Inverse folding.
């Protein structure tokens, strides 16, 4: 098998022979480069590596021996992902401050605890502590000017700098940080012990404007398509197109429909195929699949139809044997999947809607997570040298327990919490109650109403006869 160009630093170090010739086997490339400071020649060193929990990147370090100028940054070596990504971490302990963060040049980094935002800029690889320190140093640079010209602003910045210092020293918790990257090339290191509200990763479809910013589409309202003869034609963004007569036609169950859309991967015209099916003892759902002939993008999704229910729903399934793994299961995009016995929690929006079996869903969750952490090139060096032995043992124990659950070697309970009540587990005794399935309707919290965009739609009459936003309890279960 051909050796991969991008490997973890630990793998590359292990691959160098322990001989006098090791110096000649350096994995760092050196290139003579122009110095923007003194306009003479300097040296740029490049290291092609793979980051655990993430993908391939290029580490770049420039140094000029003439003037002493230095500059370090990273660049994603992977392609622009099919979806953008939003990641949130709540650091509660000094150990969380050591988590790695990969920030690409297209990402926006926020310290939500202090309402600070770092706009897109040069890519960087560091940890939570390193990014907090960098922001603190940037704010301190012009403090002497602010003190003379804007005393009020100086004091406000000084207060923020002090809070950042307390965070770096581990005196102020929690520290909430988030990254929003339309290119999907940023990451915050996860942990198998992350509980509810501590770590969250959500994938989303880019807007036409974001595609244009990333160079995937010439303009937000039009797309240039190249034909086989080499000529190009500019067409209107297909997201604004409508199928003639489709809006006036009744959707027939089981009939396939094809509609124009914009590819989430490249922004060019694509097709979305969909059909309406009925799930016995549940409701109608729409199964859709997008294919793009330009970039090869493929995806599928499942969405339920009908009105938004008044309450959310929780479903518990007790898995007791192999026969329970064959139950059909619909996990809506809005649903949170929990298996407390395996310390597993899949947040809403992280994997879209899925209609499969219990075994199929758990297998997909395991494979997606495993491929982002462990290297196929050498399992003994999984995670490289940036993952500690304790973290390695924790991940091994996590996947071992999850594999036991997939093989039904242990009994466990699956919980589906869906604020839109759009998830489903097949009952073996329908229409009679299944003793292994429990359901509970619950009142959506204010946070859930806001996330789903329902808060502004709920109104009530006040004493003056005016319609105002309805207040909803904000407590979580």
């Amino acid at each position: 098998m051909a050796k991969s160009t991008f490997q973890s630093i630990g793998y590359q170090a292990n691959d160098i022979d322990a001989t006098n010739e090791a110096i000649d086997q350096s994995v760092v490339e050196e290139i003579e480069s122009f110095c923007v400071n003194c306009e003479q020649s300097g040296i740029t060193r490049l290291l092609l590596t793979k980051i655990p929990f993430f993908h391939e990147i290029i580490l770049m370090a420039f140094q000029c021996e003439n003037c002493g100028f230095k500059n370090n940054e990273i660049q994603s070596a992977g392609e622009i992902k099919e979806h953008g990504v939003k990641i949130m971490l709540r650091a509660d302990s000094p150990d969380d401050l050591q988590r790695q963060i990969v920030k690409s040049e297209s990402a926006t980094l926020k310290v939500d605890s202090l309402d600070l935002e770092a706009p897109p800029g040069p890519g960087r690889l560091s940890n939570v502590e390193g990014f907090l320190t960098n922001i603190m140093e940037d704010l301190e640079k012009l403090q002497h000017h602010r003190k003379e010209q804007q005393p009020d602003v100086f004091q406000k910045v000084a207060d923020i700098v002090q809070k950042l210092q307390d965070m770096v020293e581990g005196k102020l918790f929690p520290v909430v940080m988030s990254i929003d990257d339309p290119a999907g090339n940023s990451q915050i290191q996860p942990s198998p012990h992350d509980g509810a509200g501590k770590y969250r990763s959500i994938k989303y479809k880019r807007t036409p404007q974001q595609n244009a910013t990333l160079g995937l589409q010439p303009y937000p309202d039009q797309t240039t398509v190249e034909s086989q003869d080499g000529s190009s034609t500019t067409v209107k963004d297909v997201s604004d197109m409508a199928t003639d007569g489709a809006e006036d036609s009744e959707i027939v169950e089981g009939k396939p429909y094809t509609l124009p859309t914009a590819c989430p991967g490249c922004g060019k015209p694509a097709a979305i195929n969909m059909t309406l099916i009925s799930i016995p003892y549940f409701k109608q759902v729409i199964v859709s699949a997008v294919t793009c002939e330009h970039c090869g993008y493929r995806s599928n999704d499942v969405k339920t139809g009908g009105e938004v229910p008044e309450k959310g729903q929780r479903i518990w399934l007790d898995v007791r044997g192999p026969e329970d793994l064959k139950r059909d299961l619909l996990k809506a995009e809005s649903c949170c999947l929990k298996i407390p016995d395996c310390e597993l929690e899949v947040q809403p929006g992280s994997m879209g809607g899925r209609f499969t079996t219990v075994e199929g869903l758990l297998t997909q969750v395991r494979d997606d997570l495993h491929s982002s952490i462990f290297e196929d090139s050498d399992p003994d060096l999984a995670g490289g040298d940036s993952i500690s032995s304790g973290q390695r043992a924790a991940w091994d124990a996590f996947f071992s327990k999850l594999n036991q659950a997939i093989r039904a070697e242990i009994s466990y309970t699956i919980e589906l919490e869906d604020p839109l009540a759009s998830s489903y587990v097949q009952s073996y005794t329908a229409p009679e109650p299944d003793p292994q399935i429990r359901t509970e309707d619950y009142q959506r919290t204010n946070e859930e109403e806001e996330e789903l965009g329902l808060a502004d739609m709920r109104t009530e009459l006040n004493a003056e006869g005016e319609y105002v936003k309805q207040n909803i309890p904000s407590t979580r279960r």
User: Anything to note?
Assistant: The chain is about 20% helix and 30% strand. Residues 60 and 274 are 45 Å apart (CA to CA).
